[in-house]
Each structure stands twice: as C-alpha cells, then as structure tokens.
Predict the 3D structure of the following.
Amino acid sequence: MTIFAPGDAGVVQSHAADELAQGLTGMLGRAPQRRIAPIDRCALALGARPGASAPRAPSDGYTIELAGDTLWLVGGSARQLLDAVYALLRRLGASFPLGGAPRFPLLSQGERGTVLPEALRRVGSLSFTPAFTRRALVSDIMTWHYAEPDHFQAHLAHDREFVPWMARRAINAFFYIRHTVDSRYRIEELEPLMERNGVELEYGGHILQQLLPRELFAHSPELFPQATDATRNPRGNLCVSQPRALELIGANAREYLRPHPDTRRLHIWGADVFAGAWCQCADCRELAPQIQYMRAVEAIAQAARPVEVAYLGYHDTLEPVAGLDPPDNVWLEWAPRERCYRHAIDDRDCERNARYFASLRRYLDIFAGRCHVFEYYADAILFGGLSVAMPRTIARDLRAYHALGIRSVSCLTFGAFSLLAYPVNLVAFADLCADLEAPSPQFLAGVADERHQSCAARSALAYGEVEKATRLTLDYGDVMRPYVPAHQRAAKRRELEAAATALRRACALSPDGDPLMVAEVQLWDYGAATLDGLAEFLAALETTDRARGEAAIARLSAALGLVRAIQADFKGTWGAFDLERFHQIWLARMQRELDQTR
Ligand SMILES: [Zn+2]
Ligand SMILES: [Zn+2]
C-alpha cells in the first residue's frame, strides 16, 4: 500500500497523510509506503500512482473517489481533506473515543494484500457536505489558569489529547472567551497543535470594556456609562452618544486585531451582566440596550472591515428591538443560556423555549440570516457541575437551527471537566454538527462503548439514568439557582427528588468499573446529593422553615466533598479549582434568598 502526497504539502495536508498512515498501519498490520506525486494541496491518493488529476470536491466538504486502482481523498480545503481521512478510517472500522486513544482494528488477512486492499476499494466513491460549516468549541480563557504554572500545565496536558480528538470528530474552530480579569486573549502554547489540526482560532468575548481603557475614566468620565443617579460608572460598557468613545473602541479593535492579520471573526461582547452596564445619560436613556450595543458593534465593525464582528444576543440583548440595522459584516451570535434543555428549542410544548425560538426568528430576519448559535451543552456553570446527558435535545435543536438556514454552531466547554461530566453531549454535538442523520438514540450506547469497553452494557444503562435525571432537572436555567416561582416549587421539588433517585440508580449500575467509571460515579453521586439538597431547599422556601433551609445548604456544601475525591486528571482544573469558587458563590446566594424569606 502506498500513500501519495505532494512534495510541498502544507501543514494540515502533511498531518492528514500522517494520520492516514497511522490508521492504515494499525488496520493493515504494516506501515504504508509514502511517495511524492504532483497532487493538489487539498488531496491525497492511495494505492496505484494517480494517472490523472484529482477529482473535484464540494466547496464545503470532501469527496472520496475510486479511479482504477487509486483511491482519491479530496477536500474543499486542506482541513476538509483531513475530515475525509477520518471519514475513511471510520468507514474501515476505526473509532476515536472521547478521552482515549484511537482504535484501529486489524482488517482480516484477505483484506490487506494488493495495490489497493479490497476493504478500501469497497469504500467506493462518495461526496459529503457537512450540515454546519462552522463547528466550534468555546472556552473561557481564564479556566486555563495560565498565571499558575502547575495548573496551566495540567490543562495543557489535557489539551494535547483533546485537540486531536476535536479534529478527528470534525470540530473545525475554537474560540477563546476573554473576560475583564484576563491578561491573555490566546494560548500560544497550543497554536501549533491547532494549526496542524486545521482548527481555526477565534478571539474576543467580553472585551468591550477593554476597548475603552478604564484609565481614561479619571480625565474623561463622560465616555463611560451614566447610572440612573447621574454618576458615571468606570465599570459597565460606554456612553454610545459620545463620538469619541465610539472612535476609541474602533481604533482599539484595530489594535487588538493587528497581531493577527488572518483573523476572520471577532466576538465583541459587553459586560457579562443582566442589566446596568449600559448608559442612562440624557442622550442614551431612550435607547434600548440592543440599540446602544449595536452602535458600539457598528463602530467596531466599520473599523475592523473585512473582519466579521459578532453581536451577542444574550441576557438583556436576547430579544431584538425595532431599529436594529446591522452592517453586512456583523453577525448575530445567539446564546440562549437560560432556555430549557428538557425540550428542544423548537418544541412548541415548551413555553420557555417558544419565547427564545421566536426571538431567534425575529433576529434572523434583522440579520438576513447571518447567525452563529452559541450553545451550552457542556456548560459546567449552568449545570452546577452536575453530569447531564441530552442527546435527543441536541439532535432536534441542531435540526431546528439548520432548518432556519443557520450554518454555524458552537458549544461552550470547560476542559477536562466537560469530558467527565458531558461525554454524551460532546460526542452528540460533534457528530451531529457534521451529520444531522447521525442516529441520536444510539449516542448513549455508543459513548458507553467508546469509554467503558469492559462494562459497556451497564454503562449504557447508567447513561440512560443520567439522561432521565437531566430531563427532570433542566427546565429552569442555572441548576444552582432553583428560584422557580412559588406555585411551581412543589412540582419542581418532586422532579429534583426523582432526578436524584435516577442518578443513584446510575451509581448502583456501575459498582466496580474502570478508573474513569469510578470518577463518573463519584460525579453522579455528587449530582444526587446536590439534587436532594436543592429539593430540600425548595421545601424550606415553601414552608418558610429557616432551619430546614440552613440544613439544605449545609448538605449542598458537604456534597462538594464527593468532587474533591475525584482523580485530578479526570476532573481537570475546572473541577479542582473553579468549581470550588462557584460553589461558594452559589451557596452564598441561596443563603441570601433564605434570609429574605420569613
Ligand atoms: Zn450616554
Ligand atoms: Zn421546556
């Protein structure tokens, strides 16, 4: 067997040839030869030396084509060639488990001989266009703990395994969210790995405040937002009625982009709060947050052309208002964080989602269809660190987004912790973004088999219990903010108790698994204890029983001990450090809620 590649292959093309060689070595029992041939930058050939030029690939996708004794792999881009390589290997029986090494089962003896082995010949010819063009994962850059060398190294060790997995499962973009506390906007240490794997990098996040340097406040407070009491606020966003403030953020956005002339997309978000970050001065007062925000985004989009700028539909900008008129290089980034995950986004039976979906459709009209959906399927903060699984919701969501014409989706992640807590969601998201026909009912069993070969059947049943618990829990936004309206408390409490019981069944199904299963059981146990604590807390609010509420909070606090016991590399830096911090915030808020009841 021979792999043909050009002498001047690019980084991604060379990597595609290496990956193909590694997979075939495993499956054929010997390494294929490597030869140089005059081939296009987005193609590879297998078998006999190609006699003609490569076939054409779809502009967004790849083609695998059999021509005589040559099997062509051709991408619309070098990265799509890499997608073709993984598609071929998967068709031959390879698998790429989340959090594990690739598996390349040996083909049978009769399949391995000749110029082009029979198994490869049988793959034949096919063309594939992925459902979504941009298939991105996203992380808050602060979760790398880059200022603490040990924590940072632990995260990078995870990334070195995870980035190749992303590429193998068709993820093609990664977006680092910057917050005001960050001193970095990129992880340079990972860039060669991202480049080799054809993963496009995106920057930005909550950077609007950074584009108006806070030092200016001392001399030019008028550039900053005015509060209702007429004082100017050095936090918050800016006063969009001040032309100089708009000029400054445009100029500073250009500076931000200067070191990266190849950046195609910049995410410009305001302060991460529900209200209060926009201006109430006499000129701005009448302007809705959406209009104020759009003025700022327009100023940046004009300065940054041709770079695309993302306007975030989230919290106080979730719903569109009349008067928005985005320039053509401004895209909506729609982030329905507090939606219901029990139901799909287009499920008419779900009151909560119906409102979100209607807002999305109105926004799509305003943006002429230019939209990135930002989803939260692996958001450890939203889900309170609990393990959840909702492959059916993800499948129906992605079909609904696709049917609206959306071709760009992303999913927020939290490093290794997301692999421990949301393996089914991550795999479902990655596979479905590429192929909406991927059978969603099989994700539970498929992921159980990938991760727990020695106890796949029991793990699949356990994942099924996690899915039940998820459906019972996730209809009210942040799991650790169970402040449902008073008339819903009793029903929610019963659902949380039933969810805790489902998680206990999941634990009981997996008494003596592999080390990863032990870690998953510890996290489910934390989930069960947490859900019971939340149910008790609701009961305390219902009966205005302070002592019962205090006991519930103490129980929630004790539950964190179950996460502390989890092996460090499985729970990652988020599970080891960030969860501790968030947990304190959540419980303090619950305490305040309790203090207000009497
Ligand atoms: Zn103003
Ligand atoms: Zn719902």
In short: The longest strand covers residues 134-140. The mean pLDDT is 94. Residues 454-596 form one domain. The chain has three domains: 2-128, 134-450, 454-596.
